[in-house]
Amino acid sequence: MRTGLRHLRQELLSHLPFSIFSTIGGMALVAVLTFLGEPLYKENLPGAFRELFHIFHPVHMLFSATATTAMFWQYERRWIKALAVGLAGAVLICGASDILIPYASGLILGAKMEPHLCIIEHPGLVLPFALVGVAAGFLSSGHIVRATVFSHAAHVLISSAASLLYLVSFGLEDWIDNAGWVFILVVVAVMIPCCFSDIVFPLLAVTRKDETPPDGHPH
Question: From CA 163, how far away is CA 185, in angstroms rounded?
Answer without folding.
Answer: 10
